[in-house]
UniProtKB/TrEMBL annotation:
Residues 1-77 form the GST N-terminal domain. It holds the Pfam family GST_N_3. PROSITE patterns: GST_CTER, GST_NTER. This is Glutathione S-transferase family protein. Residues 82-212 form the GST C-terminal domain. It comes from the Bacteria. It comes from Sphingobium olei.
Amino acid sequence: MIIHGARPSPFVRKVIVFAAEKGIDVEVQPAGFGRGGEGYLNGSPFGKIPALEDGDFLLCDSTAIITYMDALKPGEEMIPAEPRARARTIWYEEFGDTIVQAAGAKIFFNRAVARLVKREPDLAAADRAEAEEMPKIYDYLEGVLPEDGWLVGGRFTLADLAAACPIINVAYVSDAPESGQWPKLAAWLAAVKARPSVAAALEAEAPTIAPMLAK
Ligand SMILES: N[C@@H](CCC(=O)N[C@@H](CS)C(=O)NCC(=O)O)C(=O)O
């Protein structure tokens, strides 16, 4: 199975880690901004990453890809079956993909990606998102994180993975999430990053991240 995309994308990281947690082998092939292999060009009609290629089956969108993987290997590893836990897991995935990513991308894109793709960074937009949008997200997480540290069911699930992925990107270029101002958030983020599947993904993306962070 091939994942087309750039490893540091929160959506790409989400499917890479999800696959690892499900015991599904994936090969990651670089793609993005309209450039990549046939599987990406044909499988992602709007040029977004990730795209999936499984033989002759092409699919885009991280949530669709995760749904496919979960159906291939049914089990509760990442998506609980109990109705309320399952629904809350999907809420946190949606929250990560839309609310967190909408704010986080302004910070990560403008402080890390723009220069690399030869676009003019809007640093004021990044500063505004950091000062005005992200604190509401951190406050929310600080309020909902249980004492055991995981968002749903007392264990690592898609909820933690999806909500954390865009914050991991923000943390590359902003001290706030790990500053200690939101102690439960900082502890949760550290626990997510320490998860072997996530740690392996972060190690694999480090060479791609390094030039983005170079002064
Ligand atoms: N809903 C999609 C979002 C994918 C997405 O927006 N990916 C970004 C990278 S983080 C992208 O491809 N951006 C390039 C573009 O918008 O042209 C998913 O879950 O996969």
